[in-house]
Design a protein that fits this description.
Blueprint lengths: L1 E6 L21 E11 L6 E18 L2 E17 L7 E3 L2 E9 L9 E4 L2 E16 L3 E10 L23 E3 L6 E6 L10 E10 L5 E16 L24 E3 L7 H7 L21 H5 L5 E12 L5 E2 L5 E8 L15 E2 L3 E15 L2 E7 L3 E3 L6 H15 L1
Antiparallel strand pairs: 1-2, 2-6, 3-4, 3-5, 3-8, 7-8, 8-9, 9-14, 10-11, 11-12, 12-17, 13-15, 13-19, 16-17, 18-19, 19-20, 19-21
Protein name: Arrestin-like N-terminal domain-containing protein
Organism: Scleroderma citrinum Foug A
Length: 402
């Protein structure tokens, strides 16, 4: 038999993630290393079709007994060795193949993130030896490492119209005993880790006797998973299924099933990502309320509170009768790859990850000392890096190139 190895430029001793140079979405990302084949103790070569190396991005749904569905979102592949064109198979012995793969700066696949126990996005570099079927072994060897790629870009901004004075208070709530006109102003730009977020509240009761006592706000992350995708595809490559361990380099050899890497690519759900298109995963224009929360009835929803704020000072009232208050909080930092991630705004056929601001007011009137009123939810655009991190990344990349 022949053993396949994937080796990083720094060697594999203690390596958990394969090294790379560059920042996803901001600069090209370069991945380079060595693929080696070595005849084992039996001294027998193997008949093979090709050796390929690829950088791939996957999203995966995880159930009680392992992976239940996986999509290939993006891939960059190069063939290192190929059989003789006149033969079905060619013999391969000891060999070494250096490789260099580049992910362009306009790549559109999302960041590595472990959202929670049921859903994960991950990148990997994979070396694959496709060989003649062998009983009890299979028809392929696959060795791989994970790549902790995080997006550093911003979505393309869409200019928002500036409301005139007459359009200042654009929403009205009738959930209260006393109707309120209000406006919630949120940052127009995407929000990243550790960003300070200021929310401006302007509320005008339709009755002069009504007072605004306090306000609180929280941000919910809503993950909607489609139950239509809970059965794993019969052509999903079995070498990809053990990818959820956080251990030091992962590797696997395939079993005899009717699948190939080409089958996986062909049978994967049609993705919203394309390497030549603009990045659709971060929507900079805010959707309407109906668009934001309208999902098919068979979707499963998971909600997590990721940030909150409470008013620490009383509302102030201006001469027009409008009550004003600012709420401020810091967006949480992204966790490491071994823990749950806050993640980013994301949309694929398998999942929709959205973030919503929910504001609650406490109002009082002569007939009611305290009444809680929920305002309409507002969607926020969340990214995986902040402006400071982008500037530092760009400076580091420039230094390394020179």
């Amino acid at each position: 038999m022949v053993k396949l190895s994937l080796i990083s430029p720094k060697g594999n001793q203690g390596v958990r993630y394969f090294p790379h140079l560059g920042y996803l979405g901001l600069t090209p990302v370069r991945v380079e290393g060595l693929v080696r084949t070595h005849i084992e103790q039996d001294g027998k070569p193997i008949l093979a079709k090709d050796i390929i190396v690829a950088v791939r991005c996957y999203e995966a749904r995880h159930g009680r007994f392992g992976v239940v569905h996986m999509n290939l979102l993006s891939e960059y592949t190069v063939t290192l060795w190929k059989k003789d064109s006149s033969q079905d198979w060619s013999e391969i012995r000891d060999s070494e193949h250096q490789f260099r793969l580049s992910i362009p700066s306009n790549a559109s696949a999302p960041s590595t993130a472990l959202y929670f126990q049921e859903y994960r996005v991950f990148w990997r570099v994979e070396a694959v030896l496709n060989h003649i079927p062998i009983a009890g072994v299979g028809f392929r060897q696959c060795k791989y490492f994970e790549l902790p790629l995080i997006r550093y870009d911003l979505p393309i901004p869409h200019p928002l119209p500036t409301p005139g004075p007459s359009a200042l208070l654009t929403s009205t709530t009738t959930k209260s005993r006393h109707p309120l006109r209000y406006r919630v102003l949120v940052p127009p730009c995407p929000i990243g880790p550790l960003d300070i977020i200021t929310i401006q509240l302007i509320v005008q009761p339709l009755e002069a006797s009504v007072s605004i006592r306090s306000a609180s706000a929280l941000v919910e992350r809503r993950i909607h998973l489609s139950d239509a995708l809970t059965v794993i595809s019969s052509s999903t490559d079995p070498t990809l299924l053990p990818a959820f361990s956080n251990g030091i380099p992962e590797s696997s050899s395939s079993t005899l099933v009717a699948a190939s890497l080409q089958d996986l690519h062909a049978s994967s759900s049609v993705s919203l990502y394309s390497d030549s298109s603009s990045r659709p995963i971060l929507q900079s224009n805010s959707p309407t309320q109906d668009d934001a929360i309208s999902y098919p009835s068979h979707d499963r929803a998971f909600t997590h509170i990721v940030a909150h704020s409470q008013s620490s000072a009383p509302f102030t009232r201006d001469s027009s009768g409008a009550w004003r208050q600012n709420l401020t909080f810091s967006w949480p930092d992204n966790k490491s790859n071994s823990r749950w991630s806050v993640g980013e705004t994301l949309q694929t056929e398998m999942v929709a990850v959205k973030f919503f601001l929910r504001v609650k007011l406490v109002v009082s009137s002569p007939t009611c000392s305290a009444e809680s009123v929920d305002l309409e939810d507002k969607e926020l655009t969340i990214v995986s890096t902040n402006d400071s991190q982008r500037q530092i990344a760009l400076a580091r990349y420039t230094r390394k190139r020179h």
